[in-house]
Amino acid sequence: ESDTASEISFQLNRHKKTPSIGSHSSDMASVSSVSGSVLSVYSGDFGSVDAQGTVEFALDYDEKNREFQVHVSQCKDLAVVDEKKGRSDPYVKTYLLPDKARMGKRKTSVKKRTVNPIYNEVLRYKIEKMVLLIQKLNLSVWHNDPLGRNSFLGEIEVDLASWDWSNRKLNWYPLKPRSLSAVNGVDHRGVMSLSIKYVPPGSLGKWPKNPPSGEVHIWVKDVKDLPQLRPSGVDSFVKCYVLPDTSKKSYQKTRIIKRDPNPVFNHTIVYDGFHTEDLKDACVELTVWDHEKLTNHFLGGIRLGLGTGLSYGISVDWMDSTQEEVAFWQEMMLAANEWIEGLLPLRSL
């Protein structure tokens, strides 16, 4: 939990199927372990159909029960997903942003074989009004596919800070295509300031092969403008993994900074066991969390890598770095032994 430096040691053995021998090494990235540990974090298909149609809903806040209510009435003229059968099986899903995990999703029942579904259902959130007013409501419509990926049919995003709460009537709203902010989650999640450095094997001289294997240094400086999820503020800390390893052998975290939307961590982590060729296939994942007694809530993160979608020849969802993250990683690869400074927006992962 030190604020100054943490050092993690492992070997990036790409072809072995048993852990490497040594007191400070482990088999981080054998093909056998990678394929078993990689899971998709995406649950839908965003590009199969074009968004169209409208949705009718109303918003209300029950002061007595401290409950936010979304009355979903109906949809009209939705896109047809299965053109051969001329059918869609739509349902409506809601999130409170920016922290989808904290408040959870709510969804209506599925209406089969219709592009004009009628729901008349109320989706409810237990939440304080002052906390609600710093959220956005994301309401989206999906086609339900029990045997495959659900298909996105359109969405609307409502800024609850500017919502007219005297308006309790049902109103129609046009469904829009998936926005970049919703897909990447880069809006209002905060910005991380950090530096990274790659030290190639044997590049420091003095002693034979110093260091014996390459090292990646990560200096987490601070984060600014974290979302305030409750009146008392946010108690944040940063987790770090080197993917594809999701075990405790690569796991590191900073101390917790309490009640501060702009926490300063000043925490350095050193990972050794990196050969230069491993930089193409590994990914450094840094995530920011809000700490609470019972559970921690995800706020946002970044993934530093080449964003190729592949790791040691295996297709993986987490190799999804943005252009900014890829450029940052490439600059580190091209400038051995030099600190590269960056300011990267946090996003959903």
Element layout with pairings:
Elements: E1 5-9, H1 31-37, E2 44-45, E3 54-62, E4 67-76, E5 90-97, H2 100-103, E6 106-107, E7 118-126, H3 129-132, E8 136-143, E9 150-159, E10 171-174, H4 180-184, E11 191-199, E12 214-224, E13 236-243, E14 252-253, E15 264-274, E16 283-291, E17 296-304, E18 310-311, E19 314-315, H5 323-334, E20 340-345
Parallel strand pairs: 1-15, 2-9
Antiparallel strand pairs: 3-4, 3-10, 4-7, 5-6, 5-8, 8-9, 11-12, 11-20, 12-15, 13-14, 13-16, 16-17, 18-19
Subcellular location: Cell membrane
InterPro entries: C2_dom (IPR000008), C2_domain_sf (IPR035892), SYTL1-5_C2B (IPR043567)
Biased composition (Polar residues): 1-12
Describe this protein's structure.
The chain is mainly beta. The strands form five sheets. Strands 1-15-12-11-20 form a five-stranded mixed beta sheet, with helices on one face. The chain has a five-stranded mixed beta sheet with strand order 2-9-8-5-6, with no helix packed on it. Strands 7-4-3-10 form a four-stranded antiparallel beta sheet, with no helix packed on it. The chain has five helices and 20 strands. Helix content is 9%, strand content 39%. A hairpin with a 4-residue loop joins strand 16 (283-291) and strand 17. The model is unreliable at 1-11, 13-44 and 180-186 (pLDDT under 50). It folds into two domains: 39-182, C2 domain (Immunoglobulin-like, Sandwich); 190-346, C2 domain (Immunoglobulin-like, Sandwich).
